[in-house]
Specification:
The protein is of the alpha+beta class. Helices cover 58% and strands 18% of the residues. The strands form 2 sheets. An 8-stranded mixed sheet has the order 3-4-5-6-1-8-10-9, sandwiched between helices. It starts with a strand and ends with a helix.
């Protein structure tokens, strides 16, 4: 059987998702940042931070479901980040790195699978941010390189302002989700499933990946400061030229006045 994880949006409005699903499904449950339900051998977990985890569904079924709740998504994306695992029943809950296989002690308990789904959902969201951050940093890398070579940037003031806007948006998007990349409250409140969450979080390397993202955010902050300095420099340079021009005009007018008197 397959376990599919998707990063689909910046977030979901869970109250609306819960109301929508409750009309169609019987076993729907909601906590502060997740709505989930079980239908026979299929389990679906929708997270407030914009990730969805499916157990026992194929890709066509999962994509159809994601489409059905798109109306409750904030900033839905058309390019999903996707990860795929296989799972089977065994005697101990583990994730086997070979073949991305999850071994489950219990294949019928939705709450038990919730502990693993949290880590899987957080992981796919991190993957989405990692991809976006790399793209942003690669796209902006020419700025410090140009400054190192020439001591200035060729960007115009409006271009600098646009770059700063892009960086601020990227930074706020990542920051908003980093706040949920910790052990969820529902996991702390249910000690019987907490070890399964931590096992999955360790396997998926969530802690060090969050640290790496924070380092990336520091790089973005450094870029913002560089661009701000350049913007201020261009502004001051423009003021200097305005002053020079005004002085020149004043001198010309003064000379012209004297010539007219002569």
């Amino acid at each position: 059987m397959k376990c599919l994880t998707y990063s689909t949006a910046s977030g979901y409005r869970l109250a609306s998702v819960y109301t929508f699903l409750h009309k169609k499904e019987k076993n729907v449950q909601r906590f502060s940042d997740v709505v989930f339900y079980q239908s026979d051998t299929q389990f679906v977990y929708i997270f407030a931070f914009g990730a969805v985890v499916f157990w026992g569904q194929d890709s066509n079924q999962s994509l159809s479901f994601i489409k059905s709740i798109e109306q409750f998504a904030d900033e839905p994306t058309t390019q999903f980040e996707i990860d795929e695992f296989f799972y089977e029943v065994g005697t101990k809950t583990v994730i086997d790195e070979i073949g991305n296989t999850i071994i489950l002690e219990n294949d019928t308990d939705a709450f038990y699978k919730l502990s693993l789904s949290y880590a899987l959902g957080q992981s796919i969201k991190l993957a989405s941010h990692e991809k976006d951050l790399k793209s942003t940093i690669d796209k902006m890398a020419f700025i410090p390189r140009t400054l190192a070579k020439t001591g200035k940037t060729s960007l115009k003031r409006n271009e600098i302002a646009k770059k700063m806007g892009e960086l601020y948006l990227q930074k706020s998007s990542i920051n908003s989700n980093l706040n949920v990349m910790h052990t969820p409250r529902v996991i702390w409140d249910h000690s019987e499933i907490e070890p399964h969450y931590h096992m999955a979080a360790d396997f998926l390397d969530l802690h060090s990946r969050v640290e790496s993202l924070n380092m990336g955010l520091t790089m973005i902050q450094d870029l913002l400061e560089i661009l701000e300095d350049q913007l201020n420099h261009k502004h001051s340079s423009m003021l200097e030229w305005i002053i020079i021009v005004l002085i020149f005009v004043e001198v010309v007018l003064f000379i012209a006045k004297d010539l007219l008197k002569a």
